[in-house]
Design a protein that fits this description.
about 325 residues, four-stranded mixed beta sheet, alpha+beta
Length: about 325
């Protein structure tokens, strides 16, 4: 259970989303709301939370969707009537119901936050025998593809795409951020928007790179651009790569964020001796490194730096 202060913080966080998502719905519900629609939205939001790997979905009463302004709701003003909704919904959803129903005052106006659990693994959440989902902001019947994904437990969780709720731009390394801007400009120099990149704020740049979501710092952003001291945002995962030298000489060194810079430093530690290969038609043998730089960096970036640190033991 959240305290009232935490509920207000959660409300502000939800209001900060530029658009409704499949797991978030705002309704004015100034005085009433259809029980039938409530059940359908419960089913849809619960199923979409499962598919998105979210711990909860949210239905919020007392907010005007388009303007994100608080209008207040007198829906079931009696607390007993409001909380009896848990039992009413559970009768038609196979026993699934709200985690919690919160009420709070924002600008002296009553707002209700319904916290909806994700559908259980393998079992879509129904309402009166029918299954619902979201298509963008629209309420629709749950597609067969989505239903099968829930039934198979086929939920592609993107650990690096998750939000670090307390991280801010202050947690990012300035040098790594400027390096990222440089790489981005070079990669997109022939794109129409390239002339505007210099004018983007850091927040705009990160959103364009999809390293933030609605202004919130993702784990990928901390991995690539975060200061070494900011790695605590990823706990309990340990974002660290260890270089070890085995043989007659032994050594090791740890490397952490920002990996956009430190993977290059790590590459400098890799021993890559030159080997020679003779050619029947040439007097002087060819000389080349044992490992191609591109092969090392591909493995280092894709297999190590961008791994799912949430599953590392």
């Amino acid at each position: 259970m959240m305290t009232n202060a935490e509920v207000l913080d959660k409300l502000r966080d939800l209001l900060g989303n530029p658009h409704e998502s499949e797991c978030l719905e705002f309704k004015e519900a100034r005085s009433s709301f259809s029980s039938e629609e409530m059940g359908k939205y419960f089913s849809a939001l619960s199923n979409e939370a499962n598919l998105s790997g979210e711990s909860s979905a949210w239905l919020v009463f007392g907010v005007i969707d388009k303007s994100r302004t608080v209008c207040g709701s007198q829906y079931r003003a009696d607390p007993v009537s409001l909380h009896s909704l848990k039992h009413e919904v559970a009768q038609f959803t196979g026993g699934v119901t709200f985690k919690t129903i919160y009420t709070t005052l924002c600008d002296e106006k009553r707002v209700i936050l319904f916290e909806i659990p994700p559908a259980s693994t393998g079992i879509p959440t129904p309402y009166k025998g029918h299954y619902y989902g979201r298509d963008g902001e629209s309420l629709v019947p749950l597609s067969l593809q989505k239903m099968e994904r829930i039934r198979r437990g086929d939920v592609p969780l993107d650990w690096s795409g998750e939000i670090c709720p307390n991280a801010t731009l202050e947690d990012l390394d300035d040098t790594a951020l400027q390096l990222a801007r440089s790489y981005f400009r070079e990669k997109n120099k022939y794109k129409e928007f390239s002339k505007d990149t210099e004018e983007w704020s850091d927040a705009e740049f990160l959103e364009k790179c999809r390293l933030t979501k609605a202004g919130k710092i993702t784990r990928a952003c901390i991995l690539l651009l975060g200061r070494f001291e900011s790695a605590f945002h990823l706990e309990p995962a340990v974002a660290q790569i260890t270089w070890k030298l085995e043989g007659e000489q032994r050594a090791y060194e740890h490397f952490g964020p920002p990996f956009l810079r430190t993977t290059t430093e790590l590459y400098a530690r890799v021993r890559n001796p030159i080997q020679k290969m003779e050619s029947p038609s040439e007097l002087i043998p060819y000389e080349f490194p044992v490992y191609e730089k591109s092969v090392i960096l591909e493995a280092l970036h894709n297999a190590v730096a961008h791994q799912d640190y949430g599953s590392v033991k």
